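Residues determine shape. Next comes a sample protein:
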Amino acid sequence: MDKVKSYFMFDKFNTSWQTEIIAGLTTFISMSYILFLNPNVLGDAGMDKGAVFTATALASALGCILMGALARYPFASAPALGVNAFFAYTVVIGMKIPWETALAGVFIASILFILITVFKLREKIIDAIPVNIKQAISAGIGMFIAFIGLKNGGLIQKSDSTLVALGSLNVPATWITIFGLLVTVILMVRNVKGAVFIGMVLSAILGMATGLIALPSSIVATPPSLAPTFGVALAHVGNINTLQLAIVVLTFLLVTFFDTAGTLVGLAEQAGFMKNNKMPRVGSALMSDSVAMLVGSLLGTSPVGAYVESSAGIAAKGRTGVVAIVAGFMFILSLFFSPLLAVIINQVTAPALIIVGTLMASSLAKIEWDKLEIAVPAFLIVIGMPLTYSISDGLALGMVVYPVTMVAAKRGKEVSPIMYGLAVVFMIFLWMLNIK
């Protein structure tokens, strides 16, 4: 047991098994919604929802366990939000491409992902991002997940006249969010360990006690069969034979690449892992996600990537790979106890996302706001992520502008060749997203 604690650097992070396990449970609960959301999204594309549920759980479990065991980071992985919507609504429904072919596109993109990871291209890109931009990424992700929490919790809602507006307090379920938020804040202010996790549990209990959350119909259920989706991607690789499909593959690659890179940097900043503007063991972290994406495509799900909800476990003081491993095993258990996950509704997880967003916003203080050439691209990233509802889109806005403002300030020589190259790549990326 001492060797295990040494491997995961318990002494370095002054942590314990109890803290890491609670943080792992907190991370899992924060992101468990993907088990139900992903089948619904991909189901709209014609895929079997039961098979997608099982594929989502297994791919997420693999990604989490690899990340925890190899990279030793408390970062969980699962099929990425936004990319699954692109898969279903843009590629399959919009372009009228069969889901089998789209899944083959994910498979090819994952192979390319592994290749550029092996040659350390992804690692070099992450290391080349300036520290101010990394701080902006962390803060932007914080704003993004807080926005998700406010929306999911019913505290804000869409408005035809003002885009967003204050949510209705006449909706009973919204009070679960309010209750959870207040309880979590009080516990955190009082330095209670596991405050985020306790807040979610108490919110779920309140919901069931008031009838706002339905009691689970059963406890144990047999996992749905993978047969409708297993291996389909491999059987349809030959269908990727047009320029349009090549663009689809490249888009899968770029969106997942920058979503994962932005998320890893943001989480690493939040947890204090960055050393001299570099992320230790980043190669292992990137390879973990790459392998999970490859296996996920074979099982039958959209691209897998690091999850911003991992910040909930970090906020619960989790600092080692044990957090991700615990989350991974919870995904495996969820295959058999899926009815119990039904009580974790959006209003239960919303307070955790809002709190985490608050904590990640502290990165704003480290940005050089007095230098306009830094402030403008940083601000575009921070504001762009929540307003575009996409980590990669918000990142693109700032990364395109950064070299421009630096050159204008006669600091162009301080910009690395990689950053100039990224600006071009992001411009192409934004153009591809608008191809109809």
Remarks:
- The chain is about 65% helix and 5% strand.
